[in-house]
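Shipment paperwork, digital attachment
Item: protein structure file
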Amino acid sequence: MTQTTALLDAAPLSTVLDLDAANVLAEMHVPLVAHLVRETMARVPSHVDRDDLRSAGLVALVKASRSYDESRGVAFGAYAASRIRGALLDELRSVDWASRSVRRKSREIEETRNRLASALGQFPDDAAVAQALGINIAEIARCEQDVARAGVSSLDAGSESGEGFALADLVRSNEAGPEASIEMAERLEYLQAAIVELPERLRAVVEGYFLEERPMAELAAELEVTESRISQMRAEALVLLKDALNAALDPELLTPHARPGGVVARRRDAYVAAVAARQVSVRRTTTLRSTALAG
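Attachment content:
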């Protein structure tokens, strides 16, 4: 028997657990993840998400249960704890906006400050810390700024601490306010009236192209015209719609016609008047309906 063969015979066989046993082992040690996450949360900034850490810890626990080899004589709890702590550190590094070098320098400064405070009996200033580290004061200030910039605050921080407001209250919202919502609703009402009052063929182009999203070729075949003509009709309808909305809501934007007494100008004026009349009628009907329901 060779020396190598003897060593192989003496070595314990690998006893990695099967999948079912590994799952049971992982389930039994879920509280270990909660304990290590709680321990970690006590030492990290408040913006760190507990659920993210817990997820990373649970994944590490499952991986540890499937790679655990009990023949090595190491208790699973100790083995899993090491793997989970490593996963938690990796998760923290992934969400840390400061580089490792910045964090390392920050720890050196803090440790030196604490050591000097114990030796001197008082809190040392930056000049004393810089002298002890062999750096200038500017480097300490720069490191503190880098760490501060890497800090993240919760948008709900204020309300959670009982201060009465949250940072989210100070952030400008992209959602429309009450006045903008009312204005938009009014514009939509006028637009609907303006589409209804369009000449029949122009209305067919607007509804087919914009509302039903039908191809221009299909509309051209239906109206028995060319696609080029559909494009012209679309442009003509858009001009009329724009004029009707501007006349009702933004009169200063209404472009005066080159020939106010001409046929085209009279047609536009008649169309704008018809849109306004329809909108008045719609509002009156809505008001009467609301009054009837309230009564």
